[in-house]
Design brief:
Chain lengths: 622, 294, 244
Amino acid sequence: MSAVRLRSRPSLAVSVLAPLVLIALTVSVGASGTPSLRGTVTTILCEMIIVLGLQVFIGNSGVYSFGQLGFASAGAYAAALLTLPAAFVALQTPGLPNWIADAQLGTVGSTAVVAVACGALAAVVGLPLMRTSTLAIPISTFAFLVVSYNVIANWDRVTGGSGGLVSIPRTTGVVSAGLWAAAAVAVALAYKWSTRGYRLQATREDEIAARSLGIGVTGERLVAFALSGMLCGVGGALAVHQSGVLAPTTFYFVASVTTLTMMVAGGARSVFGAVLGTIAVASVNEVLRGVEGGGQILGLVSIGDTPGLAAIGVGLILLATMIALPNGLTGGREAGELPWLGRLLGRRRTADRAVPRVDPPIGGEKEGAVERAPAGEADALHATGVAVAFGGLRVLRGVDLTLRPGEALGLIGPNGAGKTTLVNVLSGFLRPDAGAVELDGVDVSGRSPSRLARAGLSRTFQGALPFPQLSCLESVAVGAMGVGVRRARAVAIAVDVLDRLGLSERASHPAGSLPPAEQRLLGVARALATRPRYLLLDEPAAGLTETEGEELVAILRGVLDGFGCGILLIEHEMSVVMSLCPGIQVLDDGVTLRIGAPAEIQADPSVIEAYLGRSYLEATNA
Amino acid sequence: MTELAQNLIDALALGSLYALIALGVTLVYSVMDMMNFAHGEFIMLSAYALYVLAGAPFGIALGGALITGVLIALAAELVAFRPVRKADMSAQLVTSLAVATILQNAVMAAVDARPKSVATPTFVSETTTVGSLSVPNLEFVTLGLTAFVLVGLGWLLYRTRAGLAMRAAAENFDMARLLGVRADRVIALSFAISGALAAIVGVLIVMQTGQVSPTMGLTPVLVGFVAVTIGGFGRMLGAVIGGLFLGAASSLLGAYLPADLLPFRDAIVFSLPVAILIFKPRGLLGAATGEARV
Amino acid sequence: MLELRGARVAYRGVEVVHGVDLRISPGEVVGMVGPNGAGKSSVLRAICGLLRLSAGEVLLDGRKLNGMAPERIAKLGVALVPEGRQVFRTLTVTENLRLGAWDAEEGESAIERALERFPILRERADEHADRLSGGEQQQLAIARALLGRPRLLILDEPSLGLAPKTIDAIYELLGELREEGTTMLLVEQNAVRTIDFCDRCLVLSSGVVRARGKREELRGDSGLVRAYLGGRAELQTSNGGVGR
């Protein structure tokens, strides 16, 4: 483990301790109160575990799921059936298989079984669902919620049907619920800061950029979905051991909206937010629920029996949050990243501290997950006869291209010549209508961008596609994590790359706060962190001043020498191309116009005409 | 043979109803890129207008339902959806979920959590014999209304100035505005039409079930969402096809499923689309507005 | 006619235009050139109301446009031919034109006149716009913008992605419009052509105006152009002799 960390020790400590302290406070309030308050607080802590489950998936993926309460429901039923005394089982669920009916697990045992079972169930359910699009996932998970309700409510012989179950052992106390909640916080934070967690967050920030770094979106979502299902199942199991009764509607629509509101109100991206939001919304909810049953407010106003009042309150909180505070109370930050909490604790903002430098040079290192074979004769990125048409418009009409490791090739041509389309084909974002792409002698046509990145081909984009909410250091480290490098090593690589590209000062800044030129440079850094053998750069110098352009050339030259990767450089800025690339390929109207050395290209009238238009020649003639 | 024909007519009628729901959902989506959870509550509130106006002549009750649907949709747009118009799709979806929760529970608080029965004209509960088939009149009403709506919507979208604005806004909202198309009006219009469609669906559901309840919008909105998803987001034709498919599947499963599996009909119906999405992740017709390209 | 005073524009929370001043008089053709990412499009989007100014103001005949909705600005007579043309691909050519004449009083007769001016559009009047070639789409985009009888026509990279021959045709059209007295703001990456075409030009780079002046002044000052336009200007100077 190197000395460099993604966050400073004080920030880390505050982020971990703050939610735990909140939980401890909640537990102590419950433990010192009346039995009814004790029960209420225990329920809230169980809800908190479910909300943490939501946060693990929704917060890190940015994709909403409305189905997680289905796993809470499944967990609750499983826990109830595993612990229900045999006599009650025969009465309530005659169709239950004997081995379950006979099972008499304790709370811890049954909760452990539930955790595994719900994790597995979520993995199975998620397998098809995660393949669908970002917009289809909320809908198909909503469908899952309704389907699971439908099954539970109608499977009378096993679940007790719509009447539900009673006499479930009430074994969850306020302290044990608090301990489980603390464990859930630990799981959520550990996941968020793990390699997989970072990869998923990258897909939330920008799906396309994440794929270009080797991150498989479906797989990462599935992992979080399963983990989330596990936490939700545990929350449901503990809750049912608190209330002692269970019905199909216990974890259905209202509970879904309530827990979602808790997560959103706290700030979906933040684990601390999940804890804070649960407590805040639950408090409002409890007050309203008190009014709901009829009674008096402050002994003044009498209110009759008003069902639905608490749910209206929850809906209003959710609406107000979405309109006025879309990032929630925490702004999506963990406690250690909150400026006001820092001030409160008398610490200066840790985020402003520059990251110390380390120097494990990337070029010659031996360790690391991605081992590359030494360059051989056949090693090249090789495209043959690539053709692409959009509608009737033929953008590429049979283009060949060869890029070797350690070599820089410039790709130029007028706007609309098909340069970016060619890069999209080479990097797997676009399937060509004809032609093939070979990577080191292997046909990789049709492979996904993430597989290509793991095979050693990385790219940047014309738009910088930053990960706005991640720091620069995190953004670049994610590049290395994307191709399977472990976290500590990925951070070391990121520090080194940032240093080489002159971005060290920015390491702890959010990527979204950088000016456009630096965001572009950060994109190059991110791609380099995957340690590619072939690097495709789509207009990296756009928007840079001449001086910055010269610096970029120096950096890229360093990349050629130090990393030994081949660079395909699309660039408008001729000075950049000319000074870096010994070979230049000119595209025009979807075909290769010319390949040659810079001097030859510069002297070729057909190139000048294609590039600047005939009128330019006429103008200079005049 | 007769039984098959009978089942097919039932399937077509339910499919038409579902297509009307899906059209209401997709209309708002195509202009605003928002999947509207509250569409189910637009349906529910329109149905409650029938309950409230139970004593009035049926024509007036129908008019009341229609006006309720349109007004609620317009109010929701103005109060809740306009402030989040620039937010991303997920944020809009969650906002509409909040609206749905508020409306649903407001009715629960104001009326009752339990279902209320609503008297419907005897005509719709009778059947007409066509050859060897006896078809419930309600199915004729449903089919007729659906045909009317499809023709009317087609006329509106392809023959009127407002329709041109809606189609332009659906494809490229900013560009339409740059040419002078008023964003607020187009969005309000799409919500108004969506609300009217919801009202028609609400009335048809009441005529079928004879009752209203605060949660009656939940299944329809899921039907609408799933139909739009399998049809391809933002595609009018896709919504109709998706709705017909879901309705037909539900109706035919109801007719042919063995008795002990019958309670799980909805579970099976809503699991089917997932199977479609595995093979066609972007829906049967492909999404009209795809995810950002490279 | 149009005036920008100290306009600052932020995009996704990052300021990309740092105080731009610009004044266009009636009948004038003003160019704005600069490398990719210089902030040109952001300036245009701010004028049209698609982006909000974080500071400064936009005035049209002394009337402040800040914070006004795009559709209202359009009605005041500012028309944009956007980058990438952005014709409505699912609508027919006629429908596209009808949208162009959205607020015009004599809509159909105006469309008739536009079809006369652009015969290729008449030929394909009932086809969907995505069947048109790039050059035809550009003609449609310009025709559509002209139908609103704009007092100011803004063109964002009209030559982007077009073949040289087509670009020549587009510029011929723009020349005609200039003869007719149309006020234009023309944005291009192709500096040489733009500087030649326009009465005056601004050179924008990294969100700041680096140079401004008349055609002759800018053309003479090759060092300046090279500094902010980089390689293309270099190619131009180093290969100046090729064609001779």
